[in-house]
Design brief:
Length: 210
């Protein structure tokens, strides 16, 4: 702890007490924010892990169907057949606010079911692969949303934790120590003034008695 560079006066003492009350109130608010961020981070982290598992499982199924389709018709024929499919998928991005923090929202728009691979151009596995990759798109969008939110929440949590530590371990203790110092100095000054006044009264009383 270190004393703040201030003059030991009554006005300084009042200002320090106001500063201490403000710092303690700020710490309480930051601590509440920190707890909310921790809970929100853990909640979204669990959802991100579940979304990652779902996306990986869907991708495994889609790639398995794609391998079967390649074995059925051959990769060159499958590539030519894929040129006939023109999906019009899209992604809508927006934001939500949490404690002043902007968190992403990702919505994947899937195009209506369009022409599938022709029976002569590819096998049923080709249609299964196409549908498998379509299904995985919203899962990847949800995963991207959650992973980005987790990163931003973790970054904000670190900043909030540093501010809490600065208040709890530096500013508030220094302010409290300085208040004790100023209070002690003022009390000592009052005692000295009392002694001086008593000496003056005693001398005046002695002079009057003579």
């Amino acid at each position: 702890m270190a004393l703040l560079s201030v003059a030991p006066t009554k006005s300084t003492l009042l200002a320090l007490r106001r500063q201490l009350a403000f710092a303690q109130e700020g710490y309480d608010l930051l601590e509440q924010k920190r707890q909310i961020l921790v809970l929100e981070l853990l909640r979204r982290l669990d959802r991100a892990r579940a979304a990652e598992r779902d996306a990986h499982e869907a991708l495994r199924g889609a790639f398995a169907a794609l391998r079967e389709a390649s074995l059925d018709a051959g990769a060159p024929a499958l590539d030519r057949a894929a040129l006939a499919v023109r999906p019009d998928h899209g992604v809508d991005l927006s934001q939500e606010r949490l404690l002043g923090l902007r968190l992403p929202r990702v919505a994947v728009r899937l195009s209506p079911p369009g022409p599938r691979f022709g029976l002569g151009a590819a096998s049923a596995n080709a249609d299964a692969a196409r549908q498998g990759f379509v299904v995985v798109l919203p899962l990847l969008g949800a995963l991207a949303e959650l992973e980005t939110a987790v990163l931003r929440l973790a970054r904000e949590l670190r900043r909030t934790q540093r501010r809490c530590n600065a208040l709890a371990k530096v500013l508030i203790p220094n302010c409290q120590e300085t208040i004790r110092y100023v209070s002690g100095a003022l009390e000592e000054r009052e005692r000295e003034s009392f002694v001086i006044l008593k000496m003056i009264r005693d001398r005046l009383a002695g002079t009057g008695g003579g």
